[in-house]
Amino acid sequence: MQTCDVLIVGGGPGGSSCAWRLRRAGADVLVIDRKTFPRDKVCAGWVTPQVVETLQIDTAEYARGRVFQPITGFCTGVLGGAEVLSRYDRPMSYGIRRCEFDQYLLARSGARVLDGTPLQSLERRGSRWLVNGQIEAAVVIGAGGHFCPVARSLGARQLPGSLVVAAQEIEFAVPIEGLNRGTIRGDTPELYFCEDLLGYGWCFRKGDYLNIGLGRTDAEGLTDRVAALVELLKNRGKIRCEVPTRFHGHAYQLYERVVPTLVADGTLLVGDAAGLAYSQSGEGIRPAVESGLLAAEVITEAGGDYSLARLEPYARRVAERLGTPRTSGPADWLPASWLRFAAARLLASRTFAKRVVLERWFLHTHEPALRLAEPDAVASGSHKGERSPFHADRVS
User: Fold this and answer.
1) Which of 88, 181, 281, 325 would staple 240 via disulfide (CB 3.0–4.6 Å)?
2) Is-above-0.85 flag for pTM?
3) Smallest Cα–Cα separation from 92: which of 49, 130, 146?
4) Residue 396: pLDDT band with limits 50, 70, 90
């Protein structure tokens, strides 16, 4: 039997960020994940300076041997329409490969890791959990993405009215001569919105890799739309290399229309497991990181009492950080013809593309990095002989 204070199910950015902060507060943390790390993860893959600041990442150290592509511009437009180029005098984001980024964060967290270990059973024993019949924990964190088994156990999946994005994408290595034959630049990702504003496609060069994908809240005809995007990129000379035909599918719930289930007795959900992806862009890394850190903060403050009442502040802090989910979007109250007209006109505007689409929807430049107080060194029990707040009766 293994024991821990906190068991985190899922080793992505949300789970590893939560583990990192908990370990700094003195918690005994165990992370399990059904995949073996480093593992491939379907994701366009860029992080904003706010995420880098919040996680206190040493960028020079991280960039050694890993992809860390500064982004100083974006090309945007409607699929098949005119393009708008927006430039910046500083990096607005950084391209990363999730197989590298997730491995780095997980290793840095200091938590014990059991990868290649799926969650098979979750049983409540008094005030503690028994997981897979052999791991005992006071708290369980669901950080396993949209299909997280902890989220399913709380009934947090497929809530009435929830909005789910279905996406297909691929990331593949291309010889440098092949990349250079096209016009895609590493510092300038390209974003192409669907005419009905129900999704967008992208093409992003990072290092010797090319990432292409498209996601929509209406999954009908998704494969055909992805093929049309690839054809567009080829016809416009953006890419002049062979593109694998087998794209990878994934899904995630947007933070929109419904208030997600985030907490229960001895349980918290973070990131995509909680359905916290930004509604306009679908980005999930920043909400995952921030929710993971907020969850760790609340657990630390709970002082060993992990009842619903003591963990409930987590839901309030997430709402304070992300706001209240909006109840509807333009597609709910504008006719399709008006949406197509609005998309074509607005996205052709350089001011709208830069100030609204990029800086508000995608980069969230108006929202500063999340800053939390450093974990109290005394809380770990490593100073002055004080007892750690992470304690509870063990399952007998």
Assistant:
1) 181
2) yes
3) 49
4) very low
